[in-house]
Amino acid sequence: MLAEDELVAQLQAQAARPVSSVTRERTAQALLDWFTAGWSGSEMPLAARYRATAEAAFPGGGAAPVLGGGALTPLGAGFANAAIAHLREIDDAHRAAMLHPGVVAISPVVALAAERTLTQRQMIAGIVAGYETALRLGHALGTRHAALFHATATAGAVGAAAACAVAMGLPAPQLHAALGIGATQSAGLWQLVDDEAHEAKSLHPGFAVRNGMMAAWSARAGLPGARAFVTGPRGLYTLLSGEGPIKVVATGGADDLINTTTVKAWPTCAQIFTPLDALKALMDEHPLSAADVAAIDVTIFPHALKIAGVDWPTKAAETPFCLRYAVSALLLNGQLGIAEMEQPRLDDAALLELARKVRVATSDEFQRAFPERRPAEVTVTMADGRVLTARRDLRRGDPEDPFDWPQLQDRMRAFAPQMNDASARLITTWCEAFADPVNDGQLCRPLPALFGPND
């Protein structure tokens, strides 16, 4: 039996069995995280460009709400919402899979639910299947793949196909075909980062969702897909530089993988979270003043700089990928929030002076722990000779150090400051309902008000 056959069988079994209370709660949290990311990015100028792109590519209107206002066809809304929810770099992540699962698993299911009769249970099944598939494939493809390709785009396209196909209730042969068709459309080159085209990075999840939705519809219409889409001689693993544990394609863990994700504590690339966590711990323990700092030494795993390797940003879109900027802004301002990323004072004399004191080095030892751990060490040398050091191997928001429900609500308001109390209550109530099995049989059509005000 192919590993892909076993994956399909397990996805169907997962969708058929009762949903655990842990998975229900995590699904509700994942939805709240998705709306947080979507609202946070929805007023950015780039969001308007993505909405305009979707409107031009998918004309004719529709009933599927778009983050920031308006409505499109499900395909147009899935594309636009996935792109917008990825803009701030605060959508959830995963250590082993090295991708953003929620943006590719939730975006298409929410879009389908706007025009298709989906119950809450069907939405949960689709979302959980999308996470499961994207995370298994991302983990299997491994670190070499993640250094060359954006796994949110590659494994994410197959995850989006799984989310749609399971939510639509496709039988096993069509589910397999949907995954195979989605796999043939997997793409996402990190060359755009090398060429400073960071503003187009959100096209990766946008296209992944578009391709995944099209794959599911194609399979439903009876079109065949590649069967050995991962393990075949011309499958994803061979052609996209896979080097991870390929057995995870067919062998699931003890729990639904949606429960192993990371909710992001910082509005930056997740590769640089541990040094920020370490510096924040030092700031909490010691009254650090930027003027009193002589040097800041950051040691991190080399893979981090393959993605977050901007030496110094020249525009706001590059700030999430610049370790020196993030460290300097956090210490200088005492915080690193939306304002520091969207309106960076890149020519500020105090910021530049502090940034010159930041030295970044890599460690082969730290790299050997990657991706299961993300080790980083920060050493702050003070002008008076004191040396302060902190190390972090795991990130705030990892499964070992999760946010609780009230903290997630506080995070939503902090990352989406334009959200008013009424909107926050509406979103929280809507997401919270997914944790209660009493609501499983109810039709679940997302309200336009959940997506923000019109332009």
Query: CATH homologous superfamily of the largest domain?
Result: 2-methylcitrate dehydratase PrpD
Decide which structural class fits the backbone: alpha+beta
Mean pLDDT: 95
Q: Could you name the CATH class of the largest domain? A: Mainly Alpha
Quick one: overall form? globular
N-to-C SSE string, H for helix and E for strand: HHHEEHHHHHHHHHEHHHHEHEEHH
The neighbouring-strand order within the major sheet is 4-3-5-6
Please work out how many helical segments DSSP would assign. 19
**Percent of residues in helices:** 40-55%
Q: Tell me the radius of gyration.
A: 21 Å
Tell me the strand percentage band. Answer: 5-15%
The CATH topology of the largest domain is given as: 2-methylcitrate dehydratase PrpD
CATH architecture of the largest domain, by name, is Orthogonal Bundle
Largest sheet: number of strands, sense, barrel closure = 4 strands, mixed
Task: Determine the N-to-C terminus distance.
Answer: 52 Å
Number of domains: 2
Number of strands: 6
Q: Which regions have little confidence, pLDDT < 50, spanning 5+ residues?
A: none
- Work out the oligomeric state of the chains in this entry: single chain
Characterise this structure.
The chain is of the alpha+beta class and about 450 residues long. The protein has two domains: about 5-265 and about 400-450, 2-methylcitrate dehydratase PrpD (Orthogonal Bundle); about 270-390, 2-methylcitrate dehydratase PrpD (60s Ribosomal Protein L30, Chain: A), CATH 3.30.1330. The chain contains 19 helices and six strands. A four-stranded mixed β-sheet has the order 4-3-5-6. Strands 1-2 form a two-stranded antiparallel sheet. The radius of gyration is 21 Å and the shape is globular. The N and C termini lie far apart (about 50 Å).
